Each structure stands twice: as C-alpha cells, then as structure tokens.
Amino acid sequence: MVEEHENIRRMLKVIREISYRVMVLDEFHIDDVVDIIDFVRNYADRHHHGKEENILFETMNKTIERLAKSGAITGMYIEHDMGRLYMGNLEKAIERFKDGDDRARLDIIANAISYSELLDRHIEKENTAMYRFAENMLDEDNKNYVEEECNKVEDRASHEGLQEKYLSLLANLEKKYLGK
Ligand SMILES: [Fe+2]
Ligand SMILES: [Fe+2]
Predict the structure, then answer these.
(1) Ligand that lies nearest to the alpha carbon of residue 57, given by its number in the listed order
(2) What does the pLDDT read at residue 180?
(3) How many whole angstroms from 73 Cα to the centroid of ligand 1?
(4) Please, which residues have CB within 8 angstroms of residue 51's CB and are 6 or more apart in sequence?
(5) What percent of the chain has pLDDT over 70?
(6) Mean pLDDT value across the chain
C-alpha cells in the first residue's frame, strides 16, 4: 500500500505539470486529464482507497476503540470523499472546456491542484500515522486478516490487469509531461 502511495504521488506530479500548462496555455491534451480522472477513480480510489476503507480502516475502527473514538479514521474517509468531489468538479470543468468555455481552465486548475494538495497531505498522514498505528495497535489475528483480504483484492485486480493498465498509463503521462 505504501508503494501505491508512491505511484499516486507520481501522478500528482503529472497533475501539477498539466495544470501549469493549462494555465500558461502550453501544450497539453485535454483527454490526458480524462485519463488522469480514470486513474484517480479506478486505481487510487476504487482499488487503493477501497482496500483502506473496506479492510484496513474498517478493521481498525472495529478493534482499536481509542483510535476510532478519536475521529482520526473518520478523517481519512472524509478526505477520500473530498477527493471524489474534486474529481467530479474536474470532470465537469473538462466538459465546459471542451465546449469552448475558456474560463473553465480556472476550474480545471483549481480542482486538479486542490486534489493533489489534499492527496499529498493525506498520504503523508497515512504513511507516518495511520499505517504505523495499524502496525503497532492491531493484534496478530487482525493483521493477518487485513493481509489476506488485501491479497485477495490484489489478486483479483491483477487478474483484470488493473495494475498493469494504470501503471503504464502513469508511465506514459510521465514521459509526455515530465520527460521521464
Ligand atoms: Fe487513504
Ligand atoms: Fe492511502
């Protein structure tokens, strides 16, 4: 999951570069932003956040009362949800841009940058706090349960070719926009 965070952060860099180009009207393809939304929704959200929400955080919520009561886990769910809002707004802005509304560039940049700032901070919190709490506070049985359930999701996704599809999409965008 920490590795997925790194992949998501790589995409955040692409998002920042495209946003800059949208601002200064440098070369960009609007359909690349459509691909980014697809990556965010299916790789970052459905796949990665899905494992957090349905397996890891759910187990932490049920078994670590002190943490559940603190609201820290609820905060993670709320941030996932805010990410969905930004992506919804970004999608609408792209439609308007495609319809010829130049001012939609403002909403593309605002939502793309808001998302990348939100996710970067969110990932930092998970890497340095939530995942560590899981490591230190879950008992062995629950750790094994989380591990097994995540592996099942991982296997199903590999079977569908999800990781392969989105990691190659990421690499292509990095090449195009960051010269990697
Ligand atoms: Fe998360
Ligand atoms: Fe995460």
Answers:
(1) 1
(2) 83
(3) 9
(4) 1, 149, 150, 153
(5) 100
(6) 97
The overall pTM is greater than 0.90 = yes
Give phi and psi for 89, each to the nearest 5: -65, -40
Mean pLDDT for 18-40 is 96
Phi, psi of 138 (to 5 degrees): -80, 145
Fill in the amino acid letter for 14: V
Enter the tokens of residue 88: 């919804």
Compute the residue count for the chain: 180
Cβ atoms of 23 and 17 within 8 Å: the answer is: no
Q: How far does the centroid of ligand 1 lie from the alpha carbon of residue 79, in Å?
A: 7
Measured distance CA(129)–CA(170) in Å, rounded: 27
Within the chain, what is the greatest distance between any pair of CA atoms? 57
Structure tokens, 128: 């340095």
Query: What residue spans of 57-139 are helical by DSSP H?
Result: 57-63, 65-70, 72-98, 104-125, 131-137
Phi-psi region of 172 (alpha: psi -120 to 50; beta: other; left: phi over 0): alpha
